[in-house]
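User: Predict the structure for this protein chain, please.
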Amino acid sequence: MQSSHAARHVSASFTDPNLIASAGLVPVVRLAERCELAVLIRRHVELKVTTGANPAGKAMTLVAAMCAGADCIDDADLLRTGGLDRCFGGIYAPSTLGSFLRSFTHGHVRQLQAAARRFTANLIGHTGLIPPTEPVVHLDIDSKVKQVFGPAKQGASFGYTHVRGLHFQIVTASTPASRPVIVASRLRKGSAGSGKGAASLIAEAIRAVREAGVNATIVVRADSAFFSAKVIKAIRAGGAQFSITVGNTARIRAAISRIPETAWTPIKYRDAVWDEDERRWVSEAEIAEIPYTAFASKAKNLQVNARLIVRRVKRLNPATVPEGQGELFATHRHHAFLTDNPLVIGQTEPNHRKHAVIEQVFSDLEDGPLGHLPSGKFQANAAWLTLAAISYNLTRAAGTLADRHHAKATGATIRRNLINIPARIATSARRIRLHLPEHWPWTPGFLTLWARTGHQPITT
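Assistant: Here is the predicted structure, written as structure tokens:
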């Protein structure tokens, strides 16, 4: 590829009022309207201040900007370029949106989260984000510290990552046939522990999935930071099962040492896994299980009788043996989790490892609307996180409606292929027509999304 003309023969000007950069916002916003996002925000969110007027219009502006790639408030200005104001009404300026976000209190954030929960339920029912025929739905909970750089930012502090940040939790719902959907989220101060408030967030997530009409068995997966009696009690109270990694404590090591050598069953990983501690690729392992009573020192109603499933791999580097551990642990490295899932061990163990799918959601969020937490006000950032979760689910729903490829694509791919498509606007008889690029590689997916959101067929 090379330039077709010399530089002196090429010119440019920002003068065409009929061009738009993100034609895919037309079906995406229509999808949000069909799933009643604006209606739900008007119903649930009530900001009794001047800057909080028309919360539905302002939230819709922010969500649309996020779907097009905005990661800060100023990026919403991209919606006021070219001819987008002829496709959409009520587009707000970034200064107005910033004032809107800063008017949120904790109660208003909870109102917005209620609207987001019901909107997600509508998306699931309308687009099949969670296939109704799946027998099991996995809820994955995890947290992440989002680094910030302003010492005056409310709630920002140093936590276990040793960077200044704000610490947020999310819960996702997924199946083997579908990508994760965010069903609950919460922003905390940077120094908050990973598991703080997890029990109530999981309970909220289970209710959200049930409200969406999902009748499948729910299995909650989490890492060891969320291993607590309160979390498991909340999971069982919601009628779900659990699969939670446990720490390498003395009681866990004692339980592992009681597993007879004949009980270990070799397994082969489908894909090799890089082990940071051992600095090597792991491709084979052995698994075994033993009954285990967790939280034995607590009250009877908090004790948990379940299956302790252990995966072990050979320890090739003796220098990594923790001090005080016996010969058994010098030979192998052990990874254990507690579960009440009744599936056979050969299915339960690999299913638990798929908890790592939530890292793809973190990656998508940070590559999109959570590139920043843009405000100095904590509750404004909490509202931004909720809107980011809405935009993530909306983008995921658009990909699901488009085709099989985009149903499992990353958010960046969906934005590039289906949303950020340049177009020229033409009007005739009070109708708008979008002229899209010829030979667009992902035309079939866009045409399907366009039709499934209720628009007239496009002539190709």
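The first helix runs from residue 25 to 34.
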